[in-house]
């Protein structure tokens, strides 16, 4: 048999594949290569199980056989006749690993039982798909984050303030910290307590705007004292510096939130990379590994089936759209792209118009600060109203624009999110910028003796805290109002009154991107305001819990399952990235307030300092020399440059490791392919041999 | 009471422990649940065989869309009717247990998905598999166009030697990339 005949015999396998001879040779070479990199095929056994394998070979082999029990018994009998049984019931190592594994799965089940709203999330995922479920998972993450932050703040700032509040220390102004020898008497004036009787509706107004009885309370910065407690009891050396605790708690709060966000991003990214990086494999993975055999009961089964159906549908639809987009003619493409550019400019125009409106509203509101009554309340809430209106209208318009642009579903979500992010966060930035312009005064020492606008703001930190409090509260009120006044009526109208208009409008769809942006916006407001209103994380926790239940109710009663769903693994990562944007904005605000603006003279823990940050160097000066030198050394270049170099080395190592694993996976894939061809070659050879051998026999007989 | 058929002999217990991935407690629990499924007169039988309909009344299997295939795969009856003896039942629980290896699980998963028992997953097998996964109610059934697109995508991804079917090693190749196949392929009494 010539090589050409063999080659022809395999023409049907495709011209791209090597011939049978070459494949065997390649296989031998590549198996040598892969043996160097990859010791043995890792079929999911842990190192502990491999230890067991080496320790109890005969038993492992029997269990791993894919035979019915009767056959296994027969094999075992044969083995026992050949060699006496040495292991009875498993070695100690086996028992230990089984115990550890069971313990881990028990702990996991226990934690799952305790995880907040686990069953609700499963129900949502089964009925509405992974996209909506990822919103609620994100909301749950924020609730837990806010609650833990509140515990942090309460433990280090609130409770010591309450405990030491009974200690009567007069606020002193240390001379050395004030630049000018004489402070203007006006700077020290601060009288937030309401005079005389409070009318009832004023009480409500105060509750909503944080003034009046709420202003001088633990709620806002202005109430905290700059007490430094030093006990001189016998034997104990306890001291507690409340201003230092206040500042450091704020800093650690930001650091803690950053660590939580980054850790969660890492977890989500890992899932996204293992499933999304192998995008090619997504269909087979869903179909072969998607079913959970632990589902009990017909309800859970139906939920799971719906879940799988949605996932498959999303992927299939995206693929169809991609194919459609690829098949457009040049003329269509040109019109589509020019339309997209036009819509991009329209969106930018809308966003800029909103910014101008917000700046104007903030200036107007601050100028008319002194109007009383409900009109005054309206004026104080004006910035919040304009922001919320803009955040509500502009994404609606952008959604209509997105319909014209015809991006594929996941790209539409990303574009919508980007636009809404820019809108929300920069509008918040503009509000803060106008506020800061009002607070700072840019004159000389004569017009501005206190270095801030003391005429309007005797305690500017409390005013900023109040503004953030109002934003948070208004957000919650608007969500509830929308639920009651818009969504329920819409559903009732659509259900009970069937005419063309209502059918066209239809039941509401739960739009995930704008809802996520609402959460990110709320969280950014809380981060910005946490320095000035320490109880804001607690208020935010309560707000998010209320929001969870409200959104769940509206989802189940008013919304229909979305006709277009989107992939949830990459979007979860995107939500966290957007949250990080908000965090950076809040960080900029905090750094500016701590380092650049003069704290109020009349209120708060930092009333005697030039800048809020100054308390840290002052406290460091009290530390013993050794600690001080150590801290300075860590901050110096002599330490940070080698640290940076070592981090780079580690990063290079991990990158190299990742690329090696990728290469070995590719090699194994190729091996599998060649093994299939080898099998076919051998089958063909057998058939040929069968054909040849009867001929030979006949030849011999003749 | 007290007959050998309704109590496991000690040496059988240790033998089963060696031959399966189950612990002693799990084997005893399986024995108890299995005898509950038997009638009075069947309990005295040395090696009773439970018909498929009775096995499927177990709550762990009742609502599983693959329940008939699971019984057929693990059954050693000559009539291929899906009836299980106690040893078949133990084999089933062993393959679905916590400690079974990925190889065992993927092998049995392949056999469960192979509806026509021909050793490969072809178009018909995959179609039946997808229908089991999505349920066959009105609003969760894929259209024939979507089904065709889906199955051709699956074959594109997993059929490495391009013969139009998915064989065991190709199947195991896909399974090995999944991080939670081992934990989801689990039935515990």
TrEMBL record, chain A:
It is a multi-pass membrane protein. Residues 38-59 are annotated as: Disordered. GO terms for cellular component: plasma membrane. The chain crosses the membrane at residues 137-159, 244-263, 341-362, 374-398, 410-436, 538-559, 571-592, 639-661. InterPro entries: TMC, TMC_dom. Its main location: membrane. GO terms for molecular function: mechanosensitive monoatomic ion channel activity. Belongs to the TMC family. This is Transmembrane channel-like protein.
Automatic annotation (TrEMBL), chain B:
PROSITE patterns: EF_HAND_1, EF_HAND_2. GO terms for molecular function: calcium ion binding; magnesium ion binding. The keyword Repeat applies. InterPro entries: CIBP (IPR051433), EF-hand-dom_pair (IPR011992), EF_Hand_1_Ca_BS (IPR018247), EF_hand_dom (IPR002048). Keywords: Calcium, Magnesium, Metal-binding, Repeat. SMART domains: EFh. The lineage of its organism: Eukaryota, Metazoa, Chordata, Craniata, Vertebrata. It comes from the Eukaryota. This is EF-hand domain-containing protein. Residues 101-136, 146-181 form the EF-hand domain.
